[in-house]
Amino acid sequence: MSARPLRVAFFGSPAFALPVLEAIRGAFEVVLVVAQPDKPVGRGLKLTPPPVAARAAELGLPLAQPARLRRNPDFEATLRDCGVDVAVTCAYGKILPASVLGVPRYGFLNTHTSLLPAYRGAAPIQWALIQGEAVTGTTIMQTDEGMDTGPVLLQEPLPIAPEWTAHELADALSAQAARLIVQALSTLDGLLPTAQDESLATHAPMLTKEDGFVRWADTAAQIVNRHRGVAAWPQTTAFLNGARLKLAGLSVTEGSGQPGEVLSVTDAGLTVAAQEGAVLIRTVQPEARKAQPAHTWAQAAGITPGTRLDLWEPTDP
Asked: Where does the record place the Formyl transferase C-terminal domain (predicted)?
């Protein structure tokens, strides 16, 4: 490699990617930032740039926000003309075509928030929590045309604290990814690509609203793990007589009964039976109302021990 600073193009969009961008620009020359196009946000549908694009504009970095990458010669020319040595993707949100992957001399490196080949896909943080994993981590991989299928360049595990939700785990993984990408870029010529074992691959598809629905027929631990995983979106939803209830502050507690049966209402919250064990719910938000302590809602709604919350099961588990 030459003595001049490594010239890096950074592809990212959400706030999760900001620490990675900051780490890269602190050690190398960022010649281009690529983010998703601006999108309407809020009740007023104000056109708003993604956090990475907004930060690039603040820093005065060259910025591109192409609506598509495939069959886009203008963007390919922009990437080529900036003299990029290597590109880094972090939660960018678009599949990269071969014509783009081939532009940088060292190709593309991706920061993926799992220990590949586990949890390939759009939501590895969330699914690791939903599945009750005790350890996850960050993988720096060489990007190919597949979905997180490229060879592994660098990998580091990260223990998951039992109380962490998707918010805390994302923060920890973002910091880890920022450190590891600088390490990888500093030793590009010395990294040894290792092919992933396809037989060990698991998948982490994008979440849907139904992924946040409580399955009272699960164990209490499974219900709480799902709650941890969907904390950022779509959040945890239960049903009472068909009406939706947003739940927060869930934890495993003692108790037994029929799945979905209210066992007690105390100042600590609402205790509801699962298939095995029970769940303590601290906060409830009824439809079109503000969140409130669970016992306050229960008293106002006439919820007493023996009340049954609706059972919900996925039609295609």
From this structure: 207-300
**How do residues 263-303 score in pLDDT, each as one tens digit?**
999 999 999 999 999 999 999 999 989 999 999 999 999 99
**Phi (first) and psi of residue 282, to 5 degrees:** -95, -30
Nearest to 255 by CA among 285, 297, 219, 213: 219
Q: Among 3.90.960.10, 1.10.150.20, 3.90.1180.10, 3.40.50.170, what is the CATH number of 7-200?
A: 3.40.50.170
User: Distance (Å, rounded) from C-alpha 101 to C-alpha 84?
Assistant: 12
Q: Which residues are annotated binding-site positions for (6S)-5,6,7,8-tetrahydrofolate?
A: 114-117
Q: Which of 233, 235, 226 has its CA nearest to residue 284?
A: 235
Q: Which amino acid, 198?
A: E
CA-to-CA distance for 56 and 134, rounded, in angstroms?
A: 35
Taking alpha carbons only, the member of 215, 219, 204 closest to residue 136 is: 204
pTM over 0.85: yes
Q: Say which CATH architecture domain 209-301 belongs to.
A: Roll (3.10)
Residues of the chain with CATH 3.40.50.170: 7-200
